Amino acid sequence: MTIESPLNGTLTRYRVMAYITGSFLLLLTAVTLVKYIGLAVGWDSEGFWSFATLVGIIHGWIFIVYVAACAFLWMRMKWAFGRLVTMVLGGVVPGMSFVMERRISREVAASLNP
Fold first, then answer.
1. pLDDT at 14 over 70
2. Under 8 Å CB-to-CB from 109, ≥6 apart: which residues?
3. Whether the predicted pLDDT of 47 surpasses 80
């Protein structure tokens, strides 16, 4: 898909951040599950707890950049506020950012090629 417009950079930033955010959210979900399942069975490893905390912190900072990318694209497209909310929720629900990225990319492409 080639999009020749000022939206190209904004859409590309959104797409990249959607993939990065989604990947880190899946990693964070897996690490958290392992951490709490390990805690339930009596596994106590400080190194893993530190790793889980680090993944959580990194995802938090990435999520802030993702929200900014969503907001910039939302403002450029002049969508309703509900669309921004669904875009941001894509970075909160594991796997949803990939679905939203595909949907948003198609919608932007359709609006540029009537």
1. yes
2. 1, 3
3. no
